[in-house]
Amino acid sequence: MTLRDAAPSTPLSGQRGSGSSWLYDPTIRGIVFQVLLVVGLALFGWWVVHNTIVNLRAANIASGFDFLSTRAGYDIAQKPIDYTIDDTHGRAFLVGLLNTLVVAAIGVVLATVLGFLVGIARLSPNWLLAKVASVYVETFRNIPLLLQLLFWYKAVLSVLPGPRQGLALPMGSNLSNRGLIIPRPVIGEGFELVVGAVAVALAAAFGLSRWARARQMATGQSFPSGLAGLALVVLLPTFAYVLAGMPITLEYPELKGFNFAGGLVLKPEFMALLLGLTIYTASFIAEVVRAGVLAVSHGQTEAAYALGLRPSRTLRLVIVPQAMRVIIPPLTSQYLNLTKNSSLAVAVGYPDLVAVFAGSTLNITGRAVEVIFITMSVYLVISLLTAAFMNWFNARVALIER
Amino acid sequence: MTDVASPGPDARSAIYVRGTFVPPSPPPGSTVGPFGWAHKNLFSSPFNIAATILTALFLAWVVPPLLDWLIFDAVWTGENREACLPVDGREVGACWAWVQAKFGQILYGRYPLDQRWRVDLTALLFVAGLVPLAIPKVPYKRENTILMLTAFPVAAFILLYGGFGLPVVETALWGGLLVTLVVAVTGIVASLPLGILLALGRRSKLPIVKTVSVIFIEFWRGVPLITVLFMASVMLPLFLPSGVNFDKLLRALIGVALFSAAYMAETVRGGLQAIPKGQYEAAAAMGLGYWQSMRLVILPQALKIVIPGIVNSFISLFKDTSLVLIIGLFDVLGIIQLNFSDANWSAPTVPATGFVFAAIVFWIFCFGMSRYSQYMERRLETGHRR
Amino acid sequence: MTNIAAEDLSADRSKMTVGSQVAVEMIGVNKWYGEFHVLRDINLTVRKGERIVICGPSGSGKSTMIRCINRLEEHQKGQIIVDGTELTNDLKKIDEVRREVGMVFQHFNLFPHLTILENCTLAPIWVRKMPKRQAEEAAMEYLAKVRIPEQAHKYPGQLSGGQQQRVAIARSLCMNPKIMLFDEPTSALDPEMVKEVLDVMISLAESGMTMLCVTHEMGFARQVANRVIFMDQGQIVEQNDPEAFFTNPQHERTRLFLSQILH
Ligand SMILES: Nc1ncnc2c1ncn2[C@@H]1O[C@H](COP(=O)(O)OP(=O)(O)OP(=O)(O)O)[C@@H](O)[C@H]1O
Ligand SMILES: [Mg+2]
């Protein structure tokens, strides 16, 4: 840069006079280039908008967001909130969004559990276990998710026999081509007591661990707060449950005719999507976990051992805190991927945001621009929130380096 | 005191000089050989033993039925559905006969039979161009790359689509592996230049250029590919002047290219960041302008570093191409699904067979490419150390 | 190789007394990595207060030998007895030994997610069950001894290599070890930082600590060690007091080695 700035001062270029030298000034060049870019983008934008308006007019399609408050006129197979065909497109959007969030949230939990298990298994000193874990990872991350979803849906779950011949599972559960049917918990009188007991137990366990930690710091005496906390969390609610006269009963599914009545039904669409998302994402999470643990050098373990720390303490105090810093950012982006991938629901007929809104609503109203805009915005907002969290996290935990 | 007979130093003496060297001896039997290996890797502790037993039980539960289904109970030959029907309680595994019958479609879709040599020729040209590029030792990388990025696409387009005396084959007839590869390869090739520009833009000191690049990149990375494909298939026609009608495949290609350009930009940016600052300064000190220093000094180095990253992007893109079936194109998966409805071949295990076969096809490509990317990564690492 | 000349270091040998009790005893120790025989019939007795320097060519098994003493490596034949406790697969005994033996590594191995002070108090709190306040007070004392009390609240990444190694020494001392092991503590350091670490090690020797030290700092060996051990091919080749070792090496391997490192 500096040499270029100096170049015009040589006699030869000096003779070109001041008239053309601004062309060679990097600052001015930058400004000109940016102005051209803005103008170009604006023209392009205008051209697109103009074409769209002309096309819409020609096709006689109205525009605007008023369709959100008109009657949707179609039903949705799974609705976490009340919804009928007479509800609006706006409410259908909400149902789709909630369905997306439900499957994403459950998927994130399951994929995390499975991914951590597989990732740790891959690091295990047991050769067989490590090999099985790597076969899992290499198999499932190299097969397209859509293919896996279709496989679970069309080749596994829909070819199961009907409910009468379905696979009977414990507690009256049943797996058939109608999905997985499990007992439904029915909440009765006095349930508040149990909820209260759970809350109290959790708070007490938390307080206990704080107290134990403080006491250890102050006097050096340790207290098995984990075990005591666990006992508290298990026993107190159980006690409250019995005391309140067992307010939670299970409604077992019953075979009536060709189908089951009662119980909680997990539809094949939902199960296929959940299974596919979990298995696929877990294979990536396993790799993230493995890389995170391997990123903590062996010297750290040795130093901890040399100080007399036990392996379990070493893991908790030295390895995990360091590995988590490495793991959490890519883990978050896997969560984001899972959420975005849940849009493949449309292929197996699970009514997520894309299937409901960018599918049914778009087809019925024809408002392609608005519908796609809203749908994309939802995912963008989720992405941006995740990115914001990640920046905050990275700033907070980054190891301080010179 | 030195004592040759007892080779160790005496515990009490301060002075010791070894007489003869102790020759290496084999380790105690329990630590080497197959037994030592098994002891160390499978049975070293109670926990380890438990893990071995549980894993072995799991394998015993999963592997035999899998092998039965894939091989022993599978149907390898047959003319129609009869072959794959479970009559008289016969166990029927995979219906490979179906795959055999549909193999042509899986490769070419409905591309006319007598024209399929054109696809084969294109594939041959592609492999002939790619293999020398992929092997690090082969020279003429630069010339070859230019050829692959200019002459090959033109030749491929003419061969596949038609013109210059070749009859036109509409893209609606394309399908199977052909579409999968066309979408993935075009996507990656088209996204490379755009991705490089965006990466440079994101690192630019010009605020507007930077903002535009960041918005572009984050937008495409923030939305699922399926919404992009929806957009390409329903909104793109609206954006263009009426009368401009474009092919469904081309629409998908544009969507895929823009989408993967954003990911490519991030990959390339990683490479640019890995170039030491000294290189930028050295280029500037030599009097090179921005574009000159990028073209001659920075990008050649950065792109070499990101080869594994580009291959990984390609793997993702390759897997994502299967999504085009949602907007009505028939890639490998699409063609296979389409053929489930063939009444001649309707048998219970056909869908599973089709999906498993598609999975094997995708797996071979993706696993092969990921191994290649790991190989390049290791090569780059050792190259850097030197 | 950075060799601090003996004149640059000043140690007061009169303060270093050797007791009669045995601190470490290795009897016929053999170790293999797979088929590779790394340690071959090692016999060594270290008495309380001894300062032993171990040297030898790369790959001769020096690190492996001292790492066997706190069971970072397992030996397959022979006996290792540390402060009266024999090392076997018994985890309790391993714990016992590791509590009494401190170790300093070539690459410091400080915990990057903890502050200097937390690095020093981690083991006293969790292993010695010391109250935090007391652990911190002790840690500050040791940090003062290694001359960096003002860095206590920084993170390892913010310190120079020499400072980090001094923290690593202080961290080990906080456990009040009876024996200290050093594995090339200065070889990852820039030349100007070597002396600050050696000075700390010298004052440690003067305080009567039993030390086993793998190092090629011959100035340090002359000033501090009461025995120098030369290893090659996994075995002890020669052992002598430093003066005799350097001026009159007996074994030809020793002579060859010394001529290479002393030029
Ligand atoms: N984990 C291991 N597995 C297999 N071989 C090993 C392992 N660790 C060390 N070795 C081998 O054992 C031999 C002795 O290693 P050691 O680290 O003890 O040598 P050293 O004398 O400390 O050398 P240096 O001066 O380079 O540190 C070397 O040949 C080394 O390659
Ligand atoms: Mg060593």
Radius of gyration of chain A: 30 Å
Multimeric organization: heterotrimer
CATH architecture of the largest domain in chain A: Orthogonal Bundle
- Biggest beta-sheet profile of chain C: 6 strands, mixed
Given the structure, what is the number of helices of chain A? Answer: 15
End-to-end distance of chain C: 11 Å
Large-scale geometry of chain A: globular
Q: Helix and strand succession of chain C? A: EEEHEEHEHHHEHEHEEHH
The neighbouring-strand order within the major sheet of chain C is 6-7-8-3-9-10
Number of domains of chain A: 3
Name the chain pair whose interface involves the most residues.
Answer: A-B, 61 and 62 residues
- Mind telling me the C-alpha Rg of chain C? 18 Å
Strands, helices and their partners?
The complex is a heterotrimer of chains A (402), B (386) and C (263).
Chain A: H1 2-6, H2 11-14, H3 18-21, H4 26-59, H5 89-122, H6 127-140, H7 145-157, E1 167-168, E2 174-176, E3 179-182, E4 184-187, H8 191-219, H9 225-243, E5 248-251, E6 254-256, E7 259-261, E8 264-266, H10 268-295, H11 298-306, H12 311-341, H13 345-348, H14 353-365, H15 368-397
Antiparallel strand pairs in A: 1-2, 2-3, 3-8, 4-5, 6-7
Chain B: E1 16-17, H1 33-42, H2 46-72, H3 96-108, H4 116-134, H5 141-149, H6 151-161, H7 176-202, H8 207-222, H9 225-239, H10 248-274, H11 277-285, H12 290-305, H13 307-320, H14 332-338, H15 350-385
Chain C: E1 22-33, E2 36-47, E3 51-55, H1 62-69, E4 77-82, E5 85-86, H2 91-100, E6 101-104, H3 116-126, H4 132-145, H5 161-173, E7 179-183, H6 191-206, E8 210-214, H7 218-224, E9 227-232, E10 235-240, H8 242-247, H9 252-262
Parallel strand pairs in C: 3-8, 3-9, 6-7, 7-8
Antiparallel strand pairs in C: 1-2, 1-4, 4-5, 9-10
The complex binds adenosine-5'-triphosphate and magnesium ion (MG).
Residues 62-63, 183-184 of chain C line the site of magnesium ion.
